[in-house]
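Troubleshooting log. The previous structure file for this entry was overwritten by mistake, so regenerating from the original sequence record. Sequence copied from the archived sheet and checked twice against the printout by T.R.
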Amino acid sequence: MINKWLMMWVLVIALASCTESQKQQSMEINVKELGTEGLEGNLQKGVSAAYAGVLNGELLVAGGCNFPDKLGFEGGKKVFYDEIVHFDTAANTWKTVGKLQQAAAYGVSVAIPDGYLWIGGQTATNSLADCYKVAFSREKGVTLNSFPTLPETIDNFAGTSVGSKVFVAGGSASGKASNKVFYIDAAKDNEWKQLADFPGDARVQPVLAAIEKENDTLLYVLGGFYGGDASKAPTMGEKVLAFSLKQQQWQEVAIQENPNKEIFSLTGATALAIDNRYIACFGGVNHNLFINTITDLYNLGKDTTLTDEQRKEKNYDYMAHYMTQPIDYYNFNKECYVFDTDKKQWLVLAKKADFARAGATLVGNTEEFYLIQGELKPGVRSPKTYKLQIKK
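Regenerated output below.
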């Protein structure tokens, strides 16, 4: 009998060699879909922006949010969840194993040597500065231990780690789009430190990755968007920025440009560092459609020729059209874009419809990682989770 976990091998282009004369190194990605049995209630509809972790080889997913009934423009309510669920590989099912301190989403999940950190986020009413160190075993279950809180509330941001070094950047900090970067060494520090702000516009829902090379830690900020303010229109994060922890300095190292020289977005994407050289990025919204949409809504909000009632009506009409298109219309990234930090070039590792999601959560390492749920289109989630491996 064919295993209902469909095994899909995606062969990919060669990446790069150490010298031009050497044979190129190639990679491939192995993808296996997990079952959805055991997800209860509205969790069966999938969530976005969940917390997650791989602890002692076991996958945990916590919180997240969705619209279980009507879409937001129709008056639907975004619901946040507090359940912590574990995927039992032997039973091929999800089981509820605990609860968060409060129903939340839009935080970050970062691996450290002895567990995971679940950091920040928001509830239905407020943003969070809370941080918890997560542990799990089948014998003891899940435990959430308090960890030094962030210096301020942050949601819709990005986080990453190298060893015990943990970084978070961007998002909405104290309710305002942010360029801020915070750092903590989870092995020895008892408070977060603020690093230099990254240059350019603030970035909400960016991507973050850290790489160690030449006795330095390099922090990369990619993607994200700025929604605009009273004097500045919305922008997309199109530049790849790198911060040297040794030199305490930012620089622009590349543009998010695919091999066809087309700008792409990584807003709402996820990322994984590979071999202290490559940054593999999964998902994200379509660049042109997203910037056009947020700019249209920004201009509508600033149109002084409209009465409040007219503006409300036009906004509803716009959203009624935008939110009700088929999934393919939104053209989320199917490509797994890979940034070569040595050559400062973008490549396409794989292209797969299952990668086309925004607000998914990615946890694990190249030997075994998970792409967890997320949006298929604005307002619509997927309950599907994928186990992936990078083969070299």
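The longest strand covers residues 127-137. Archived copy saved in two places this time.
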